[in-house]
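sorry for the late reply, my laptop died twice this morning and i had to redo everyting from scratch. anyway the thing you sent over, i finally got around to it. pasting the sequence first so we're on the same page, its 365 residues, then the predicted structure underneath. double check i copied it right bc i was rushing
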Amino acid sequence: MMSEEPTAKRKPPRRKDVAPVPDDAFASRQLSLFQGFLANTTDEREALSNAVDLWDSIPRYAISRVRMNAMRTAEGFLDVMELSFNYRGKPLTAMIYPARIKDKDGKRLSFYPSAREELIEHALRKIAAEQHAGFFHKPSYRSGARFSLHQLRKELEQQGHSLRYDELIEGLDILSLSSIEIVATNDDGDEAFARSTYLAALTGVRRKDYESDREARWAAQFHPLVTQSIDQVTYRQFNYQRLMKCSTQLARWLIGQLVLKYTQASITNSFEMRYSTIKRDSSLLNGYARERDAIAALDGAWNELKTLRALATIEKAEHRGTRAKLEDVTYTLFPTREFATEQKAANRRQGDAKASDRLPRPAID
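ok and here's the structure:
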């Protein structure tokens, strides 16, 4: 659903710079809990990152480059995109305000954050899980990562996603200039909302010679929902390398939902998801003209999760109405032992972290 007020009438948001981060923000208790994965080996630890419950349930990267190219006006504008979804049974709306930046030809165009920006955000969150790179500052209530373009590019390259320096900078600009508003309507019809750019702030050094800029230090401040999750210990560790191997956004979204919702995964405990629910909450199947094509895309994503050893078995049951019209599909999922073990470790780690967070904090002189 598109809003009626054209983006062209709004002033574009300004990028906010990250204010200086005090040294103690790189070694706080909350940050150490966020960085303290439960793993047996260094290799296992390197494969892990954190999924953030509400933030990772929002369809914030659902508009592909192909779709947005078709949606732009002749002047290069995109309107505000409204996407409805449910979070733990509660209906919410995500309103996505596009960034307006210069393309490689020097023309200003509007962009929604899409697949590339999703990968960049995951890589930044992984970097934040490393010592001396991530920060959490309780007094100013902010979190984020300090990095170089070379470090970010190397991280993405190691996960199979090579990007040029100019592509990285464009992606960071889109993340720091695109705003997302989460709207909830209460029983009285009143709307409560929270609005911020995807990256709440960004600081860096840009030069025409990218090679001379490769080691310059940048800082990205995460969305407030990520900061809140770090503060309240509501994140879950998961196999980040598996997610980054997915060839489609839909497969990445499915993995994220399994990590966050299929918390009691075991080889004897199945989990059900419906096509209609996935279509509503991911917004990644809305571009298909025919229902059967969208279902085929979903089937392909489930099969990829089998290939990546997250799922062992997928049972598909079609629901048909009058004249045998396909109305919905239920998928019954059975995990691999590997995924079940990962979820048990995530449960234990989250429990340990919450118990540690409840311990008295040392007095500060």
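The chain has a mean pLDDT of 91.
thats about all i looked at so far, will dig more tmrw
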